[in-house]
Specification:
The protein is α+β, with helices and mostly antiparallel strands. The chain is globular and about 85 Å long. The two termini are 51 Å apart. The structure holds adenosine-5'-diphosphate (ADP) and magnesium ion (MG).
């Protein structure tokens, strides 16, 4: 990371120096020198027991991203601030998390700090002078009630609001699923447990305290929800599409089975989807009702029942149809627990002796993929054939990839990297690759809304990667997988960079995915989220042809010529015009003019709701 020089008054870029930081339970020490040769010289250290606050910094001040600060007391009890810039938000959050854990018991911790920096003799945040009290409430929970002696008292009326609003408040959440901890420092959860959040600085793993048992530890943040939010109810599906709701309810075949989801067309509006077999003159089907709100803010489905909250309204309709096609009945099978980002807050190296390896699932670019189990968890294990990838670089990168978590991405759980061949351990999906699935189910899929749903699921996973500024580089139906209830997940994201194979890596190579490549990739190997969008268009074409090879038997040079002359794939027989027009947008020759994944997702929702 880089560190700002502490004795310079001005803010020039040269005041920032690259340093090698080492954190021990007692000290944060920084070194200069050559990382490769290992000759490093200590340039300074902060004793952790003197730390008063560990916080982010308002980035405008330094015109740098990902800056955080360590406020600490000198021996003379004077306050100093060390500013450090990490290379990514993720790296910064990790440091914040580790530092906070080590200083959490400090007597001298403050509830207040300066969000800005001290420039031209004043704090940029509150415009106060050198000795003015800190103005901003810290962003994490500190467990002491009174200010310990010898540290600055916060000003009684902080500039931006009354004191009560600024005090770090207690956050209480409810567990949605059972979770069995597997790593030291992690904590198991039972559904409906109430927990206080102690540290939410890591995105996917929060430190919590069980309110009843007082146990403390890390647990997956996606397994809990704010108390009082709809998310804690089994029947609430969040952003699921109309089609997802239909698949789920039709599979259950329970009279009156229902879910509530956010309306795809109107934000802030909810839709109730109900299954019924007994509708007059009709086959079993799912009906959708908007949950309306009257002027007093009461929710209602029919004019017979109005309630101040949605859970109450649902409860009343469970007793009585009151205008709906049937009485509501909870579906028996609750939501399945989602994947976690890795297998523990601090665990990502997996001991191969704990893996129970089972049948072979297939083989690909890197070697064999096998089904396996880690305890009760189903996993897929990629055994990386030696010499097929730059392993060290991949292992570094996988730490970042593990932090990517979305319902439409194949979750990376961890690696076995201590011996060769290395294993990559991911979530297991029971129906295998999307390409084979399309080919095997051609009859039932064509002419069905299921294909549109597949495309929008892939698009949702890609929208997440786009937001995280992560480029896939090899998006195609063969790299997506299909799970139970026809969920689709995108896999192999980013792996292409670590392949050691000239046939794969250059656009002239035999294994290079030419048929999915955008013009700027063919010409300059210029990858971006927009080149992923091009590949997504080709993937849509694969879906709508149930797994045909794009450009048929054309050979690579002919494909390149065709793409460069501006011609694109033809409209598949069963593909409606509005869907084909999305594909055509994806194949806009100029990368910058292509739509983003979030724009495409909105188009899908509009089509699905027609
Ligand atoms: P590679 O990336 O090395 O080319 P693939 O990812 O294509 O290998 O995997 C080869 C085959 O293994 C796939 O076609 C699929 O059938 C199966 N497979 C891979 N990952 C999984 C998984 N997570 N769950 C289920 N099957 C998988
Ligand atoms: Mg693959």
């Amino acid at each position: 990371m880089t560190k700002r020089s502490q004795n310079k008054r001005s803010f020039t870029p040269t005041n920032w120096k690259e340093r090698w930081f080492v954190l021990s339970p007692e000290n944060l020490i920084y070194f200069d020198g050559d990382r490769q040769s290992g000759r490093r010289k200590e340039r300074g250290r902060v004793e952790l027991s003197r730390v008063v606050a560990v916080e982010c910094v308002n980035s405008v001040v330094f015109q740098r991203d990902y800056v955080f600060q360590l406020c600490y007391l000198s021996e003379e009890k004077e306050q100093y601030v060390l500013y450090i810039a990490a290379v990514s938000g993720y790296e910064r959050d990790e440091w914040l998390g580790y530092l906070r854990r080590l200083v959490a018991a400090n007597e001298c911790l403050s509830d207040w700090y300066h969000e800005g920096a001290f420039i031209r003799n004043q704090w940029s945040c509150c415009k106060g002078g050198k000795d003015v009290a800190a103005c901003t409430a810290v962003t994490w929970t500190i467990n002491h009630n009174n200010n310990p002696p010898g540290h600055p008292t916060p000003s009684p009326t902080p500039p931006n609001g009354p004191l009560s609003d600024m005090m770090p408040h207690r956050k209480v959440v409810v567990a949605l699923y059972d979770y069995n901890a597997t790593t030291v420092g992690d904590m198991s959860l039972r559904k409906h447990d109430e927990l206080e959040v102690l540290d939410d600085t890591q995105e996917h793993w929060w430190k919590m305290r069980n309110i009843k048992t007082k146990e403390e530890g890390f647990a997956p943040s996606n397994y809990v929800r704010d108390q009082g939010s709809l998310q804690q109810y089994d029947w609430y599906l969040g952003d699921a599409t109309r089609h997802r709701a239909e698949v789920l309810l039709m599979n259950q075949e329970r009279e009156g089975g229902f879910v509530v989801r956010n309306s795809t067309t109107n934000s802030g509006i909810y839709t109730l989807s109900v299954f019924s077999k007994h509708l007059p003159r009709s086959r079993p089907q799912v009906k959708h009702y908007h949950i309306k709100k009257d002027q007093e803010g009461n929710y209602y489905l029919s004019h017979h029942i109005k309630c101040p909250t949605i859970p109450e309204l649902i409860y009343r309709h469970q007793l009585n149809p009151a205008g709906l096609c049937t009485r509501l009945r909870p579906i028996s099978q609750g939501r399945e627990a989602p994947t976690t980002a890795g297998l523990g807050h601090d665990k990502w190296e997996i001991d191969p002796s704990q893996l129970n390896l089972m049948e072979e699932l297939g083989s690909g670019q890197f070697g064999v993929v096998r089904h396996g189990k880690l305890g009760s968890l189903h996993v897929a294990v990629k055994m990386m054939k030696e010499g097929t990838m730059s392993e060290d670089e991949f292992i570094e990168e996988a730490k970042v990839m593990r932090q990517l978590r979305h319902q439409n991405l194949v979750q990376l759980y961890g690696v076995c990297s201590k011996r060769r061949p290395i294993y990559i351990v991911t979530e297991y999906l029971c129906h295998g690759s999307l390409l084979n699935y399309l080919r095997d189910n051609e009859r039932t899929l064509l002419n069905n809304t299921a294909v549109l749903d597949m495309c929008s699921q892939v698009c949702a996973g890609m929208e997440y990667l786009e937001k995280k500024k992560f480029i896939h580089r090899d998006l195609a139906a063969r790299n997506c997988l299909v799970g139970a209830n026809s969920e689709i997940k995108v896999g192999d994201f980013g792996l292409a960079r670590y392949v050691v194979d000239d046939e794969y890596n250059s656009s002239g190579g035999a294994k290079f995915p030419i048929k999915w490549a955008a013009p700027e990739v063919l010409n300059f190997m210029r990858f971006s989220s927009k080149s992923d969008v091009w590949a997504f268009g080709v993937l849509m074409w694969e879906v709508y042809t149930c797994g045909k090879m794009p450009y048929g038997r054309m050979r690579n040079p002919e494909v390149v010529e065709m793409v460069q002359s501006g011609r694109v794939l033809e409209q598949p027989r069963y593909c409606p015009d509005d869907v084909y027009s999305i594909m055509q947008h994806c194949w806009t020759p100029v990368a910058e003019s292509r739509p983003s994944f979030s724009e495409i997702l909105i188009q899908f929702m509009n089509i699905a709701d027609e």
